[in-house]
Fold:
Amino acid sequence: MKKLISLIAVILLCAAVFGGCNAGVISTAPETAAVATTAKEESETQTEEQKTEKKNENESESSTEKESEGTSSKQETTTKAETATEQEKDRQAKKKNKQKKNKKKKTSATESKELTCTITIECKDIYEHLDDLEEGYEPYLPKDGYILYNYTCSFNKGDTVYDVLMKAAQAKGINVSETDTGYGKYINGINNINEKIAGKTSGWTYYVNDEFPMHSTDKLKVNKNDKIRFHYSCVYN
Structure:
C-alpha cells in the first residue's frame, strides 16, 4: 500500500513537472510570435520610411530638376529677348543710316539739278572820278565799291541776266531802274547810282564770265555756274 501511494505520488510529481514544462513551452510561443510580429512590423515600418525618404528624395530631385529647367528656360527666354532687342536696334540703326544716305542722295540730286550762278554789282570806278560825281550821290557809294559781291542766286531754266539781277536785288533790298528799248531792257540805275552821274558817258555795263555780251540783259539766257558782273563805268569804251 505504501508502495502504491509512493508510485502515485511519483506519477503526480512527474505529471506536475511535465505539465509545468509544457506550460512554459506554450507560454513562450506566443511571446516568440509577438517578437517576430514586432520585428516584422518594425521592418515594414523601416521599409515604408525608406520608401518615403526615397520618394521625397526623388520628388526633391525632380523639383530641383524642374527648377533648374525653369531657370534655364527663363534664362534662355531672357537671352532670346535680349538678342531680339539687339537685332531690332541694329535694324533700326541700319534703317536710319539708309534713310540718311537716301536723304543725302536726294539732296545731292536736288543740288545737282538746282541751277545757280553768281552775281556781283560794283561801282569802284566812280572813286577814280569823284570830281565828276554829281552832288548828293556820294552817300550811296559803298565804301569798298561793292553793292553786291559774288552772291549765289538760284534761277530757272530759261531765265535771263535781267531775271537774275531782279531776283538778287529783291533778295537784298536793292532798287533797280530800267528802260524798255527796241533792243530790250536797258539798266538805268542800281542802288540809286544812275547813269551819267559821274560823267556824260558813265553808266552800267555787264559781263558774263568776264565777256562783254552783245545783247541786252533780258535777251541773254543764263547757264549754270555763270559769273555775272555789273560794272559802273565812268568812261565809255
